[in-house]
Structures are given as C-alpha cells and as structure tokens.
Amino acid sequence: MKVDLDKNYIRQQLINNATQYENGDSMNAPWVEKYRPQTLDEVVGQEHTILRLKRYVKEGNMPNLMFTGPAGVGKTTTSIALAKEMLGEYWRQNFLELNASDARGIDTVRNDIKSFCRLKAVGSPFRIIFLDEVDNMTKDAQHALRREMEMYTKTSSFILSCNYSSKIIDPIQSRCAIFRFVPVKGHQIIKRLEYIAQAEGLKIDIAAIESIVYFAEGDMRRAVNILQASSSAGEEVTEESVDEVVSKAKPKDVKKIVNKALDGDFIGARELLRDVMVVQGTSGEDMVTQIYQEVSKMALDGSLNEDIYINLVESIGETDYRIREGSNPRIQLEALLTKFLINSKAD
Ligand SMILES: Nc1ncnc2c1ncn2[C@@H]1O[C@H](COP(=O)(O)OP(=O)(O)OP(=O)(O)O)[C@@H](O)[C@H]1O
Ligand SMILES: [Mg+2]
Prior knowledge:
The chain has a five-stranded parallel sheet with strand order 2-3-4-1-5, with helices on both faces. The protein folds into three domains: 2-180, Rossmann fold, CATH 3.40.50; 186-245, Helicase, Ruva Protein, domain 3 (Orthogonal Bundle); 251-346, Zinc Finger, Delta Prime, domain 3. It has 17 helices and seven strands. It is elongated, with a radius of gyration of 24 Å. The chain has helices spanning 2-22, 31-34, 47-59, 75-87, 91-94, 106-118, 139-151, 170-173, 186-199, 206-216, 220-231, 239-245, 251-262, 266-279, 284-300, 306-324, 329-346; strands at residues 65-68, 95-99, 127-132, 156-162, 177-180, 203-204, 236-237. By secondary structure, the chain is α/β, with parallel strands linked by helices. Residues 32-33, 35-37, 43-46, 71-77, 163, 184, 192, 220-221, 224 line the site of adenosine-5'-triphosphate (ATP). Part of the RFC clamp loader complex which loads the PCNA sliding clamp onto DNA.
C-alpha cells in the first residue's frame, strides 16, 4: 500500500510540474505546454463536445466518458480542463492521469487505480481518473478495467481516451458517454498560431501560417511544434523557414508535379519527383498523402474534372497501400504519375 501511495505521489508531482508549464512559469517550456488551454472555454474548436461537457460542470455530475479522435486535437487538454472545473481547487488531489499502454504493465495501472480509488476524495464529491491510450490495451485487460469501473462507480468517474473507439470492447463503450474529437479546422489553427506568435513577439507572414496549417493536417500539437521549431532559426518566420523544419515536400513542388503530369510532361514530373524525394528527403508515404491533398484541392476549386478525380483517387489509394506494404516508393510513385498521363489524355 505504501509503495502504491508513493507512486501516486510521483504522478501528482508530474501533473504539478505540467501545471507549472501551463502557467508559463518556466521560460523554456515547450510551447505546446506553455499554450495548453487551461479552461474549457480556451479549447479551440470541438464546440459540440465542449458544450456538452459544460453542462456536466453546471450539474456538478458526470458519467464515465470516452474521448476518441486523432492525435493532437485536445483530448488530454480537455480532460484536465474538465477536471479543474468539476473538482475545483482540490482538482490535483482528486485527478489521476494514467497511460494504459504503460510499459510497466496493465497490473501496475490497475493497482494505481485501486489505491487511488480506495482513498477518500478530499474536498470534492468524487474523483476523476483519466486513462490515456486505452485502445492499446488487450481485450483481457479491457475486461479487467471494466470490472474496476464498476467497482468504483460511486466514488470515481473515468475518462478513457483513444484514437479508435472500434478497438474498445462493447461493455466499456456502453458504460461511457462517447465524445468524438475532430481535426481542428484550418481557420481555427490560424487564429491560435497568430495568438501565440503575438504573445511571443514573433513576426510571421500569412503564407508561413498557411504552410503550417497545410502540414499540420488538423493536428494542433503539430502546428504549435512547427511554429516553435521554425521560429528558433531567426526572428521572422517565413514560408521558407517553415519548409526547412518540415521534412515534407513543399506544397508548391507537389502542385508542380501534379500539373506537369496532368499536362502530359511525364519526364518533367518524374525529374521533380526525384528531386523532392532524394534532395528534400520526403518519404513515399508523405508524398502520396500530399499528392492526394493537392488533387482534392483541385477537385474542390473546380480545376480538375470529377471523373478524372475519381480515377486518380483510386490509383492514389492503390499506391498508398502498396507503399505501406513495402513496395519501392519511387517506382510506385512513378507508376502513379503514368496514371495521371492516361487521365489527362482522356480529358
Ligand atoms: N483544441 C485545442 N485547442 C488548443 N490547443 C490545442 C488543442 N488541441 C491540442 N492543442 C495543443 O496541442 C497540445 C497537445 O494536445 P492534447 O495533449 O490535448 O492532444 P490529444 O488529443 O490528447 O493527443 P493524443 O491523442 O496524441 O494524446 C496541447 O498542449 C495544446 O498546446
Ligand atoms: Mg492525449
């Protein structure tokens, strides 16, 4: 029992340290921590989720929750903000954050839950246990977790976080109110980056911000990290300084490759593709994703005919699959470019 208590103490210290970062106490804190929203109101986007959670705060009661969605969109941030608002000034004592895929094993995680739940809640009516990465737990471990959830249901609420709810067993899903977190929208990321840039006294042009949004793909953590990394190089953040820190192809280059291929210039498109992959070091997977983004953009703004778009997406999907299965990315991408030629002629 003593050992378990000590472990909990250490975890609380970790949370306290994180809080120091959040409050900006440390000059060298990574910006993702320094600018982690502190309240539900500060969380960017996720409007439906936030609205429902605020209702729980108002009622002073909440069921077990499940947060699902892609990385870096605010699941952990929202749980901490919710805990603070639900539990008030004693939130730290009554909030336990655990990672379900903890290297020390699921038994350790369950012991931590047990020893935490056995203690009486201090200063608030119940406790909140936040369990991250639940989709990495085996089915057996999930069944054990379900029993724990039932045992402590009077005194504790669980927030389970995962990327894919389909990997969670039904008995757990049915015990939780499910909240789906979505990628943060481009205009919301822009606003947030502008806010951070201003607070840091950074000069940044809109082209650079748009480039960050393009690379972030709705992941706010990635957006803030790219901003911080590109700012350390010099005072002004430009499109070039952003491109330098991201080892992906420049949007301009991808556009050129796609256009050349659609214009029937296979050799030109292939040369540029080689340049981007060899010189800039873009991976095959990233390249396919970026080609897909570019083609989708063209279909949206009407510069690509819908039938051609449908054909291309089919080919892109196949290329993506083959590369992931281990085929040579260069050969696969060049083969993809030939599909563009065929389609341009069909136009
Ligand atoms: N919706 C958001 N509004 C404002 N900042 C955000 C948002 N989402 C993420 N961030 C920023 O990104 C950081 C990481 O977010 P968070 O830990 O909440 O992501 P997550 O959804 O839990 O991701 P993962 O699935 O990887 O655990 C935060 O500290 C914050 O700086
Ligand atoms: Mg998280």
